[in-house]
Design goal:
By secondary structure, this protein is an alpha+beta fold. The chain has 7 helices and 8 strands.
Length: 248
């Protein structure tokens, strides 16, 4: 991708983000759920992300068994886990959020790329619950079972909140690591201050070794000469000749 194309895409992304964050919240509540305010704020504070929709999770149940029995249509007990849609500037940014979501337990998360170039990461889970309770105004379950289902739904909500907390921590860690990787490493120290380059030092060490070798040979010759010239007088003329040969 050319620099011009990348610049156009980033400018378009900033326009999308500004428009989205300036719009009124279209949900019935009209605001972000309290349990995920910190997650939404973290993502929207990053220039490469903004959230388009979210729900912290909910349990839907008509109040009381008598209300279920009088319902004119089918009643359902439903638990809906956390869901979050994040628009991302680049595919690499989307993959970061997706990886954090998967590692936090949101196994149903995924990525989509639209024709206009919009990249969306959807954070979703698979631990939902949906149980029919009545049909045509007739209750299908006993009150004890309804109580049991309510306990199960509440347990799922607790697990849902724990996953949201893990997702926030994983997201923070991933974003911090990404920032550190973008920092430039300092240049290695220059070797100009060294008084002698490595090849010069090697040659110097070789010269010193050669000098030491010559000195050792000279010392061995002098000891050999001393042994020949100051030995036993009965050694004869042959040893004296050998000494003369060594002196020459």
């Amino acid at each position: 991708m050319s620099e011009l194309s990348r610049a156009v895409m980033e400018r378009t992304f900033r326009q999308w983000k500004t428009q989205c964050l300036n719009k009124l919240d279209q949900s019935k509540k009209g605001s972000v759920d309290q349990h995920i305010e910190h997650v939404v704020s973290l993502l929207n504070s990053c220039e490469q992300y903004f959230t388009t929709s979210s729900c912290s999770g909910r349990v839907v149940l008509l109040d009381g068994v008598s209300g279920l029995a009088k319902a004119g249509r089918d009643a359902v007990l439903k638990f809906e886990p956390f869901v979050l849609h994040v628009q991302c500037r680049r595919l690499e940014d989307a993959q970061l959020v997706h990886s954090a979501a998967i590692n936090s337990g949101f196994r149903n998360s995924g990525l989509t790329v639209g024709k206009s170039g919009k990249i969306i990461t959807a954070v979703r889970s698979t631990h939902g619950l949906e149980v029919p309770l009545s049909h045509d105004g007739k209750l299908l379950v006993a009150p004890e079972y309804l109580h049991f289902l309510t306990q199960i739904a509440n347990q799922k909500m607790e697990e849902n909140l724990r996953r949201i907390h893990r997702f926030y921590q994983n997201l923070q860690s991933a974003l911090t690591t990404e920032k550190l990787q973008t920092l430039q490493l300092p240049d290695p120290p220059s070797s100009q201050g060294c008084s002698q380059s490595p090849p010069d030092r090697l040659e110097t060490e070789k010269d010193e070794e050669n000098k030491a070798s010559v000195y050792k040979r000279r010392r061995r010759r002098e000891r050999h000469q001393a042994d020949c010239c100051h030995g036993d007088e009965s050694s004869g003329v042959q040893e004296l000749d050998d000494c003369l040969d060594l002196l020459t």
